[in-house]
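Technical note accompanying the year-one report. For the benefit of new consortium partners, we illustrate the data format agreed upon in the data management plan: each record pairs a sequence with a structure-token string. No post-processing was applied to the example shown here.
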Amino acid sequence: MTDKTHLDEEALAELQDVMEDEFDVLIQTYLADSRTRLDSLRQTLEAADADAFAKSAHSFKGSCVNIGAPYLGVLCMEAEQLGKAGNLAAAPAIVDAIESEFAEVSARLAVFGGAS
């Protein structure tokens, strides 16, 4: 396990200040986009396409870091590295971890957004 947190509340607060009324739209867009990225990770894993898996994980990592979900970003980085190494044997477990962490992040974003 890492010492990274589920949500970087300071980063989210800054985003909220910058985005103002559009903050909720940003969060909803991130959540919808992330679900699509999770589907892509699963599909590329099923297809045993290590390169596409790495690219999907890389783009998911970027959006996680941008929204302030550091631990989810770390998990995506680990998935990306597996894909780049062409080693998908450990990938199902990391995708499960990503899915679990995304559920946690989603729940916390709902609370964070509700507090605004």
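Partners are asked to follow this layout when depositing records. The CA atoms of residues 14 and 20 lie 10 Å apart.
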